[in-house]
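Field reference: sequence -> structure
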Amino acid sequence: MTEAFRLLNKSIIRVEQPDVHLDQDDAEEMEVDQPEAERPEGEDGEEAAPPAAPKQKLTLSFEAYKNLSNLLVFHMRHEEEKVEEGDSTSKGVRRSEVVAWYLDQISERFETEEEILEAKTLVEKVIDRLIYHDQVVIPLMKTGLAGDEESEEDDPYLVVHPNYIVDM
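Structure field:
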């Protein structure tokens, strides 16, 4: 019952808001801001100083988000297949490796270092959304038996949820 409710809510949100907001914290802060006319006045009747300039929101069209997420999922599944086939050179794919792979795929588009940083931020936000919001990707914080290896919170191995079917 709760799964049906969650799926229905997701589908309704996508219809009403086709753009995907990757900065969830910023979106929540923007709702709290007061309109220009309702801002409190400072002493002596003057308007209080305006708040710091808001950060530029990181949004993607739903189509661009879906294309990028499918590309990342295909790559992760390909790497998972290598591990399952017993390829000794591959142990799985870490988050940083997915980011580096994506940046390598689109490297010819960059002219400045700022563009590279923007693309890196974008792909990291998409991966975070796939993990924490869409629950398509599962971060493995530890591998092996308990206590065998150290925690890998900063750069976990990423695995695509086994029940996830890619929408075309």
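Note: The beta strands are 19-21, 59-61, 93-94, 137-140, 157-160.
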